[in-house]
Design a protein that fits this description.
mainly alpha, 0% strand
Length: 116
């Protein structure tokens, strides 16, 4: 009988050691999980805030692009109108330019030209 008590005490002692070896600190795990959730939530908020800011900046840039494109088209039309022959001849008459009627060209010597 004494030997049976000793064996049962040894069994209980070994069981207790296994339990303490497998014992997990649930409070530490819960704290870790709560911390991980808080950090994940903050990262989510920061990411969404960054995305919202970029969206507003992109919208502003698209608006500016359409305005600049419209101004560019208007300026191209102006350039075309100002460089037309009719406008240039009218402006020449306003400035009292005389049209060139008798044009004389200088003779070109072949030796004066650059050769390869």
């Amino acid at each position: 009988m004494y030997q049976a008590n000793v064996l049962s005490n040894q069994y209980a002692f070994s069981q207790g050691r296994e339990r303490t070896g497998l014992r997990i600190n649930l409070r530490a795990i819960n704290n870790f999980l709560i911390g991980a959730m808080v950090i994940s939530f903050l990262a989510f908020l920061i990411g969404n805030n960054d995305l919202a800011v970029k969206s507003f900046v992109l919208k502003d840039l698209k608006t500016k692009l359409s305005e600049v494109s419209l101004q560019n088209k208007e300026l191209e039309i102006k350039v075309t109108a100002l460089s037309s022959y009719q406008h240039i001849s009218q402006r020449g008459n306003e400035l009292k330019f005389v049209p060139a009627t008798d044009v004389h060209y200088l003779p070109v010597n072949n030796q004066a030209l650059a050769k390869r």
